[in-house]
Design goal:
CATH class of the largest domain: Alpha Beta
Radius of gyration: 23 Å
Number of domains: 2
Helix content: 40-55%
Subcellular location: Endoplasmic reticulum membrane
Shape: globular
Structural class: alpha/beta
Organism: Magallana gigas
Oligomer: single chain
Pfam families: Glycos_transf_1
CATH architecture of the largest domain: 3-Layer(aba) Sandwich
Number of strands: 14
Protein name: Beta-1,4-mannosyltransferase
Number of helices: 16
Membrane topology: Single-pass membrane protein
CATH topology of the largest domain: Rossmann fold
Length: about 400
């Protein structure tokens, strides 16, 4: 949503961005004179202690009231733009506000809310069935729609009777390959918080880079490989696949490897414990919480990205891979229905089905990762075409065009 907000602002729209706190927005959002931030109140903590179903109902009621009042008290807008999911109660509340204020409801379909709910409750659970009905019913009330894949566009048309245009996620300008001086500065900063980045044997060095007395910065010849994965630590990402694959590296002739996993979510502490309970010889882990400006720099300095996103609907694409590609970072991605719309197997990345396949890919890509003649280097070159189309240009071609057509014919 921050990408949409900055694009709307860049094209002259005044934007009221409504959402929950918990993380610092991009500097482009914070510093824009066209964007005003409004923070929603979190549901009371005591709702977690009541029976699950009752707590869910009370939470939805609380969110409906707080979101509805917030939107009604804001200056009237021509369009209410929302990203789905979350679906409940957002779509219904926004539709009612649009009805009362004469605004258009514009939905960005990133996935289906009911499909995410089914991961923990199962498809036959009454709450999942209600969620699916609700999402179908109120989703059709929207005036304008975009979605993230051609497969989802087809599904919305055939099964939901919703016409949507496909807007592929594209990287923002901040996602670029990181220069060596910037990478060294970042590693030095991170080494003050996380020992895995530090190098106590060589002065003015990190585990990856070194700075000589004349100021020259170089990659260390015997440095480990830097592998990064970004995860929401939820049921639709089986982190156990990566752990199992990395276990196989322990007995291989591959170089040492540092695996950085960013993000927060419900299963993070469980897997942190899993990592700590195993004996690792060649692999070190770091689970940092990065500042928003540091995340793209780390991606741009890494050797390989790993994506474990499985897609609850089989129709969405992982934004984390888009960000990695924007930094020129090749990716090994878990296979699912429409991943081929983003990852071209063997060209800009590799696709795996299980831990065994991922291990084989790591052995191929990490064997000689520091030279210019590797498969990784070839993939980086293939990503140069992808990097040329950035978010705002793609957004203008689709979203701005939809709005202009709507204004033209209304």
């Amino acid at each position: 949503m921050q990408y949409h907000a900055t694009s709307f602002a860049a094209d002259g729209f005044n934007v009221d961005l409504v959402g929950y706190g918990g993380s610092v927005p991009f500097s482009t959002v914070r510093n824009s004179e066209k964007i005003t931030l409004y923070e929603l109140i979190q549901a009371p903590a005591f709702l977690k202690s009541v029976p699950r179903l009752l707590g869910y109902v009370l939470k939805v009621l609380f969110q409906s009231i707080t979101l509805g009042l917030k939107l009604l008290l804001l200056p009237k807008s021509g369009v209410i733009f929302l990203q789905n999911p979350p679906s409940i109660p957002t779509i219904a509340v926004c539709w009612i506000v649009c009805l009362l204020r004469g605004s258009k409801l514009f939905v960005d379909w990133h996935n289906y809310g009911y499909s995410i709910l089914s991961l923990s409750l199962g498809n036959k659970h009454p709450l999942v069935k209600f969620s699916k009905w609700y999402e179908h019913a109120f989703g059709r009330m929207s005036h304008l729609n975009i979605c993230v894949t051609k497969a989802m566009k087809k599904d919305l048309q055939e099964n939901w009777h919703i016409r949507a245009e496909t807007l592929y996620d594209r990287p923002a300008d901040m996602f670029q390959q990181t220069s060596l001086p910037v990478a060294h500065k970042l590693f030095t900063k991170l080494s003050q918080q996380y020992d895995v980045f530090s190098n106590r044997n060589i002065p003015n060095s990190t585990i990856f880079t070194t700075q000589s007395k004349d100021g020259t910065i170089e990659w260390l010849r015997d440095r480990p490989a830097l592998v990064i994965s970004s995860t929401s630590w939820t049921e639709d990402e089986d982190f156990g696949i990566l752990l199992k694959a990395l276990t196989g590296i322990e007995d291989s002739p591959l170089p040492n490897l540092i695996c950085v996993i960013t993000g927060k979510g419900p299963q993070k502490e469980f897997y942190r414990s899993e990592i700590q309970n195993r004996q690792w010889k060649k692999v070190e882990f770091c689970l940092p919480w990065l500042e928003s400006e540091d995340y793209p720099k780390l991606l741009g300095a890494a050797d390989l990205g790993i994506c474990l996103h499985a897609s609850s609907s089989g129709l969405d694409l992982p934004m984390k891979v888009v960000d990695m590609f924007g930094c020129g970072l090749p990716v090994c991605a878990l296979k699912f229905n429409c991943i081929s719309e983003l990852v071209e197997d063997g060209s800009n990345g590799l696709v795996f089905q299980d831990a065994k396949e991922l291990l084989q890919q790591l052995k191929i890509l990490m064997a000689d990762f520091k030279t210019d003649k590797t498969k990784l280097r070839q993939m980086r070159q293939n990503l140069e075409r992808f990097q040329k189309m950035r978010w705002h240009a793609s957004w203008k071609n689709v979203v701005l065009n939809i709005l202009e057509q709507k204004i033209k014919y209304d």
